[in-house]
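Justification of computing resources. Each target in the renewal requires a structure prediction run like the one illustrated here; the chain below, 440 residues long, is used simply to show the kind of job we budget for.
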Amino acid sequence: MSTAATRTADPDHLWSVTEHLEDILATVRPLEPIELQLLDAQGCVLVDDVTVPVSLPPFDNSSMDGYAVRVADIAGASEEFPAVLTVIGDVAAGQAEAPRVGPGEAARIMTGAPLPPGAEAVVPVEWTDGGLGEGPVSGMRARSANPEGATGQVAVHRAAEARAHVRAQGSDVKAGERALAAGTILGPPQLGLLAAIGYASVRVHPRPRVVVLSTGSELVPPGETPAAGQIHDSNSFALTAAARDAGAIAYRVGAVADDAETLRSTIEDQLVRADLVVTTGGVSVGAYDVVKEALESVGDEDEEGSGIDFRKLAMQPGKPQGFGTIGPDHTPLLALPGNPVSSYVSFEIFVRPAIRTLMGLPDVHRPTTTATLRAPKALTSPAGRRQYLRGTYADGEVTPVGGAGSHLVAALAHADALIVIPEDTESVEPAAEVEVVLLG
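Resulting structure tokens:
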């Protein structure tokens, strides 16, 4: 079991937010590293530093379509007095060998092609007549339509300094340098870099698989018309999306009715595809709060070290919480309250850090800052509770959105921050400095 079960058996013990989070993070461990092909590694966290085996670019190459030349041959060139050079051939990207450029010579060169021996700079084709014997041109004609362009003469209308329009070998990264550090999340640019330096696969912590399910006989899926006393299931959608936003591969399970045996069997069936299970609803003290009934004994008889501990936290919203491990693999499970705001705030404070820990990230928390409170009146908070209020943050100021009610899902949709009121604070005046958790 997690350290929770051994820390206290007192059902009236009020846990702090910090205690509960520390217990979760002391139990959850990064997933074992695996080797994945590059595209399969997208969104995963790099396990080891990656060192560059070959410099990028691996050779001096042209950054323009134009002519590779010697600097002395085009010194003082102008449209009135162009430097006329003999074109000795083409240098295309991917070409293995290139002609040597001697005095009075030029090689027609394409972007990305290696700088030929003897050449010191590249003049863009727009600085030349393109070998047509007329004024400046805007581009090269296709080789298939103008094969003779690789020979003959070209008039260069402007001078260039040494190394002009040349991308130097190793100017991006040099062999032996660190390309990516362990702990990096692999997005498109990082995968592109790995491919560019020759990596076909990479060792990563895989993205955790998170199963999200909500409970309650009153819940019906969106698209169906609720009967009297029923409401649409929103929590499972919000939390599944939040898990994906955190970096997980998330699976949403349809709402489970208030039946302990059905819930227990549903969770046990989901363990085969779960690195983390998140439930929402049914963790309070009501007669129909079946998550506690279903999970308090899961694993206790069959799996040593497994079990779920249900707690009361000194926070608002989100007082009732559950945490532990279940099943043969001791899969972590977080049981969140059912009210929409309570479940989302609980996810941000507890579940998101757990997901980021499973991913192997060094920093698992949302960024925080201080901001000036903009409100028409003082904000109140219950003594001894850490309160999280929804807000909008901009330019160092935060404005509350909606009230403190844990059912106000519309206000939550307009918030991009959480205003944190500490346990020892019962009132915060307008213009005061407050801690803010940034959600965007």
